[in-house]
Amino acid sequence: MSIYNFEVKTIRGEQQTLAPYEGKVMLIVNTATGCGFAPQFKGLQKLHDDYQDRGFAVLGFPSSQFGNQEKGSDSEVAQTCEINFGVSFPLYSKINVNGSDAHPLFKHLTNEARGVFGSKAIKWNFTKFLVDRDGRVVKRYGSADEPAKIEKDILSLLS
Q1: Which listed site, 25, 52, 121, 146, has its alpha carbon 20 to 30 Å from 155?
Q2: Catalytic residue list contains 81
């Protein structure tokens, strides 16, 4: 199944697929506004702002699976992201990223780009997946990987 066929729900409750991002480079991130890594929202937004005109998008998928650090409703999450972190990149409805009820998109991402020691499981919030213009998952980054560190990899896919 192509990554563009996965159905997702926007943070405002609209069903769609990832088809609008076909031909773009994507950085798909599981997020949580209450996480210690939440300051990365600003770096993610900067990447999105700097390169969206060149065919790049950050896609945020809130999750409560790690320490219940995403407590609010989807509308509360959207408001917190906008007010506290200046987020305008696309956000989606809260999902699970691990386990049997993990969202199919994240099952695909974790199967295509394994973590440390080949593990599939996401260890914490702000795990990031870089997807090329052809929809291939090319790299996985851990929670501690700052968005600025990923910039050179994004640029290589945009050129």
Answers
A1: 121
A2: no
